[in-house]
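[Backbone geometry]
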Amino acid sequence: MIKKKNVEAYSLSKVTCLLLFAGMLQNGKKFDSSRDRNKPFKFKIGRQEVIKGWEEGVAQMSLGQRAKITCTPDMAYGATGHPGVIPPNATLIFDVELLKLE
């Protein structure tokens, strides 16, 4: 957990989430950041639009919460990785802030 502030608990099943994130490899190298682009990322829980680690991690968050989500390879991109961006069998670390639920 990175920090908490005025959080409200919601059931996030089948809900669209709007969030800011930064994704890093275990060595600290950033591979993506909606925070740097100043553009929130949107996805719907339960539709397999994101990696399994996000499905499970974000579903446990509360509105307004900022959290660190660590995804082991089986919860991220596995043995394949994401060529040119994420190496095979990489553990990924995400700094995620849940901004809005729709």
Observations:
- DSSP finds two helices and five strands in the chain.
- The longest strand covers residues 16-25.
- Residues 1-7 have pLDDT under 50 and may be disordered.
